[in-house]
C-alpha cells in the first residue's frame, strides 16, 4: 500500500509541487531560491507553513474528538480476603463488584469502571500493603468490607495519605465493616459506609424481638474483634431497654476465623437452656456454628447478621434447621419486586452464585451516579457529589447518605430460611430452601444519632 507523500511530510510535499511546476531547478530549491507555483502568489515556505498549520489543526481536532469520545476511566481496588477462612465471602464480594462494573459500563458509554482484587488475608497490615500496590497501579477507589479492624486501618491510612498527597486523593467505600465506631469516633470524610452498622441492625432486630413473647432466654456468641464486641454490647443494652424480662444466659466470643469445631460452644448453649441465639458471626464462623448446632440437635432459633453469606444456607439445610435461622439484612432474593427478582436471576446466570451483597449493587450504582454527576473521576469531586446523595435500592426503596458521618440509611429486612416452592420463588445454594420475609424496617426508622466530628477538605 502506497501512502501519498503529502500526508507524511508537508515540506517534501511543497518541494514536489515546486518541481512539477517547473519554476525552479532542484539546485535553486536546495539553495533556498524563491520558487513559485503558477497561478498563486505563494512561495514554497508559505505553502509549507500553511500545510503545517492545517496538519497541526487537524491533529488537535482529532485529539480533541478522541478525548471527548473516550469514557471516564476509574480503577477500583477490591481489598478483602481471597484466601483462608474468609475466602468464600471475599470471592463472592469480588464477583459482585465485577458484575456490577460490567452492568454499569454497558449502560453508560461515558464511564468505564474496572475492579481488581487484592488478597488481604483478613489482616490489617497486609491490607495496607495491598492498598499501596493498588494505588501504585492507578486505583483511586478502594472497596472493602470483611473485618472492621481492617476497616479502621484503611480509614486511618486513607486519611493520612490524602493529607500528604493533595490532588491525588483516594476514596474508601465500605460495604460490610459495621463497627459503629467507623462512622462515629473514627469517622473520616473520605470514608463512606454502605451497610447498616451493627447498632442499626441490632435496633431493628430488638424491635422485632420486642413483639415475640416466646423469646425468654438469649445466648450471645460473637467473634472476638471490634464487630463482635459491638454486637454483644448493643444486644445487651437494647434487650435490657426493650425486653427487660429476657434473660441473657450466656455471652462469649470466639477467635475470628480460627475455630474449626464449634461443638464445645454449642454444648454450653444447649446446657444454658437458651431458646434464642444472637450472633454476628460471618463466613466460616457462621457456617460451622450452624453445623455444630444441627449435629447437637440444639432446639434454639438463631438471629444472625450474616446467616445468608456464602455457605450459610447449605449449613442450615444440612443441620436441618427449617425456619429457625433469621437474618437482618438490606435485602434477600424473594422480596416481592420484579426488577430485583430479574436482577437476581441474571446475576445467578452470569456468576453461578446468588446475590449475598445487595448493598454492593447500591454502592456501585451510587458511585456511578456520583461520578457522572461530577463529570470527573477525581475522588474529591466524587465525594462531594456523594455527600448527601439519594438513590433507589435494588428493591425500589429510597436510600441516602447522611452527610454528617457518611453512613447510608436504607430499609432493613428480617427474613427466615426454610423450605420453599422453587417453582414460584428462588432457593439458596440449590438446597430447595430459601429466604422469605418476616418483617421490614423503613430507612427513616433506622436512624440513630452519630458522634462524628468530620473535618471536610476546603
TrEMBL record:
Transmembrane segments: none
Region feature Disordered, mapped onto this chain: 1-40
Keywords on record: Amino-acid transport, Signal, Transport
SUPFAM superfamilies: Periplasmic binding protein-like I (SSF53822)
Biological processes, Gene Ontology terms: amino acid transport
Signal peptide: none
Span of domain Leucine-binding protein: 74-416
Pfam families: Peripla_BP_6
Family per similarity comment: Belongs to the leucine-binding protein family.
PANTHER family per UniProt: ABC TRANSPORTER SUBSTRATE-BINDING PROTEIN (PTHR30483:SF37), LEUCINE-SPECIFIC-BINDING PROTEIN (PTHR30483)
Official protein name in the record: Branched-chain amino acid ABC transporter substrate-binding protein
Organism field: Methylobacterium terricola
